[in-house]
Design brief:
753 residues; alpha+beta; Hypothetical protein af1432; Beta Polymerase, domain 2
């Protein structure tokens, strides 16, 4: 977030700082060890002095931000005094004249290490990647090898920045919001910070889609009183039943988050009114001595289903097998009053603590022998393995890490019945590497549910898998196409690299031996002649082919004597071509052009060819005038227009946020944009004729393509047409909805032409 040092703190500023710090000090959680208070006070005094007279863009003293981050770290995550101190100090090295050595001297190496992990990269960075965001994120993640508290403080820092994002310019809001939903919210979820993950998603959604957010928030507010009354009616018989069974509990109601409501509307293609599972009730109980937590969860489940009818396909048992982020609970959905479905979450006090505070609470219960090592520990181990051998390209690393934040998982079994968690879409090859790297490297096939299957087979939850190995097997490049997990991909790349290195070394030794037999010393001229003759681009390729036996060294004498006409020119052509090939994967990227003022929206005009900067409508999401849009300045200075919710746009915001610009449509009367609608309903004679008549004759819209299918009297299809604005499209959808037999008409948001 922006910061300036333009004036001296006023007395009101000083009072505000003291008041904010008291809120932190008076409500400390789990900070009762000797020296905790002294450490926190010392860190505050040091940070307050370092940030003296500094203000944020919002106009408040800058030190208030670290204080609020410290409050999140302690009161919402449950971390202790060292983490609070790190949160208070997290910006002093980056934004003030304080050096890391000074932090080490004052607070010791541990806190200094946390601050170092939280400090962004400054100065130069790998210009081939052109993603300072990705470099920063990778540096922060490297601290996972030492101390995960760095990540937790960073998530707290991001949460407070999102809570105060209104003060930032629009293009920066889009960058931060995109990065948040792409990386930080999934990371918070993986670390078990459910409440923080939900808030990050909602805040990101608010800034990326303000109109849709406000509309859903308004509808939720309108239904609030009615829903609260419904939850009270629903809860009363449950409360009576739990009290009769002498269960100590707390019951509370909650509503689905705005972001999750929107996701459900998108995935199901339904309006707000048809999102049925808006309501949820949470029961948190104190476990009694007479039975285990798991047994008590099922006891409460039984009591509830005696009162209300459950929906069989909505039972979620995370008590028998917790989620990978440590989450434990029993979820069921039952039919409540007024025909409304209500979700009920059942947790013990320990389960609730872990669900709300995530990683910190997980470690709090670590000493409890009844709590075994959960999947969170295994995930952290995987991330540390990935970080131990990071890729050179931060963007590739970012993709690998993002893939490891999977929320959908499958559970598969070994032949002996051991359970293995994998991401949804994982292959038998991923399973092999999950068991052990050596098994993956020697795999030749698999038996999935006792049936012989290729390594590329996509596994399903509940599959039992046996890997078939061979001592002569080795990883192949094609394996990377169906390896999904970071562990498998890293192991395959390492094996291929080792094999290539061995092959090159073997080929070099073979060539030197053969040349020695001919009485010739290897030199650059000989290598050039060989490269020219075999039409190769570099020495490594030559040695590799010799090592593979693709080049016969018995004809070496003939090759060395041969001097074909134009060979030197041919060699240089090959060499130059080789440079082009090598560099083609990395595009040189000029900075964002100065002609574009990112502080003001770039206007998308009719005469797109005469504005100095052309713009391109992204084919992945096909926005049309009237849609919410953002711009991305690509490497050729063209502006690519995306919808903010487009997955490609979210990824760009998170990795190349400096190239995101605000854009606005102007009135489009001449230009037409391709859109697609989906229609379905009950078939009848002349229905299609009537539909096309409404589109072409009454509304004067050009149709590009119609694709309709009819089965058992039900028809469904898509129509591609050209429109000027979303208002035209909405009017068209409204008119078609009135045609007899049409059940639904909706826009297809994303399609490939």
């Amino acid at each position: 977030m922006g910061k300036t040092r333009t004036k001296i703190f006023t007395s009101d500023d000083v009072s505000r700082i003291e008041s904010e710090y008291r809120l932190l000090r008076d409500n400390l959680y789990r900070c009762d060890k000797p020296g905790d208070d002294e450490l926190i006070d010392k860190a505050f005094r040091f940070a307050n002095e370092a940030h003296r007279d500094m203000y944020r863009n919002s106009g408040e003293p800058y030190i208030i931000h670290p204080i609020n981050v410290a409050r999140i770290v302690n009161q919402e995550m449950g971390l202790g005094s060292r983490s609070i101190a790190a949160a208070l100090l997290h910006d002093v090295v980056e934004d003030t004249g304080v050096q890391l050595d000074e932090i080490t001297k004052e607070f010791g190496p541990k806190i200094a290490s946390l601050i170092d992990g939280l400090t962004k990269i400054s100065g130069t960075y790998n210009k081939e990647t052109h993603s300072l965001q990705a470099e920063n994120f990778r540096k922060m993640l490297m601290t996972l090898s030492d101390d995960i508290r760095v990540i937790l403080v960073k998530i707290a820092d991001r949460l407070h920045n999102m809570r105060t994002l209104d003060s930032m310019p629009e293009h920066k809001r889009m960058k931060v919001a995109g990065e948040t939903v792409y990386l930080y919210a999934p990371l918070a979820h993986r670390l078990g910070l459910f409440a923080i993950k939900t808030e990050l998603e909602d805040l990101s959604f608010k800034f990326r889609h303000p109109r849709i957010y406000d509309e859903i928030a308004r509808k939720v507010k309108m239904d609030e009183k009615k829903n609260l009354a419904l939850i009270n009616r629903f809860s009363l018989p449950i409360i009576e039943e739990l009290n009769e069974n002498n269960i100590i509990f707390d019951i509370s109601g909650r509503f689905k988050s705005i972001y999750s409501i929107w996701k459900k509307m998108q995935s199901k293609n339904i309006p707000f009114e048809e999102v049925y599972d808006l309501l949820a009730v949470r029961i948190v109980f104190e476990p009694g001595p007479e039975m285990s937590e798991r047994a008590q969860c099922w006891q409460i489940y039984s009591l509830i289903t005696d009162i209300y009818t459950p929906k069989p396909d909505r039972l979620r048992d995370w008590v028998s097998r917790p989620k990978s982020n440590g989450y434990e609970a029993l979820h069921l959905t039952v039919m409540g009053p007024e025909g409304r479905w209500v979700e009920v979450q059942i947790r013990s006090q320990r389960m609730d603590d872990i669900a709300e505070r995530g990683f910190a609470a997980h470690w709090k219960y670590k000493g409890d022998t009844s709590v075994s090592e959960n999947e969170l520990d295994k995930w952290l181990k995987h991330i540390r393995e990935m970080l131990a051998n990071p890729m050179s390209d931060p963007l590739a690393f970012l993709d690998e890490f993002k893939m490891s934040l999977f929320s959908s998982e499958i559970m598969v079994f070994t032949p002996k019945g051991l359970l293995v968690n994998l991401p949804k879409g994982a292959s038998a090859l991923d399973f092999a590497y999950e068991i052990h790297t050596s098994i993956g490297n020697k795999a030749i096939g698999a038996k999935v549910n006792y049936k012989l299957s290729p390594l590329s087979t996509t596994l399903q939850s509940g599959d039992q898998v046996e890997i078939i190995t061979s001592n002569i097997a080795k990883p192949e490049k094609e394996w990377l196409e169906y390896a999904h997990t970071a562990k498998a991909k890293t192991a395959i790349k390492d094996a291929l690299k080792d094999e290539s290195t061995d092959r090159i070394r073997k080929g070099m030794e073979m060539l030197e031996t053969r040349l020695s037999e001919l009485g010739v010393q290897p030199n650059s001229e000989i290598i050039k002649k060989l490269l020219d003759y075999y039409e190769l681009l570099n020495k490594d390729e030559l040695y590799s082919r010799i090592g593979l036996g693709l080049i016969n060294l018995d004809e070496l004498r003939k090759v060395l004597r041969k001097t074909p006409e134009g060979s030197l020119a041919k060699y240089w052509k090959l060499a130059i071509g080789g440079v082009t090939r090598k560099s083609s994967g990395v595009k040189e990227s000029p900075p964002v052009p100065g002609t574009i003022d990112k502080s003001h929206p770039y206007l998308l005009r009719e005469n797109i060819d005469n504005t100095g900067n052309s713009y391109i409508i992204a084919g992945c999401c096909n926005p049309i005038p009237g849609d919410e849009v953002i711009g991305y300045v690509d490497h050729s200075n063209s502006i690519i227009v995306h919808k903010p919710k487009c997955p490609a746009a979210v990824k760009l915001m998170s990795s190349e946020g400096n190239r995101i610009i605000p854009v606005r449509w102007t009135i489009h009367k001449l230009a037409s944009f391709l859109a697609r609608i989906r229609i379905d309903g009950i078939d009848r004679i002349a229905l299609i004729n009537e539909v096309t008549n409404v589109i072409s004759t009454e509304l004067n819209v050009n149709i590009r393509n119609i694709n309709v299918s009819v089965y058992d009297g039900i028809f469904e299809g898509t129509i591609d047409l050209y429109v000027h604005h979303t208002s035209d499209l909405n009017n068209l959808i409204l008119q078609l909805s009135n045609v007899k037999g049409i059940a639904s008409v909706r826009r297809v948001e994303e399609f490939v032409e």
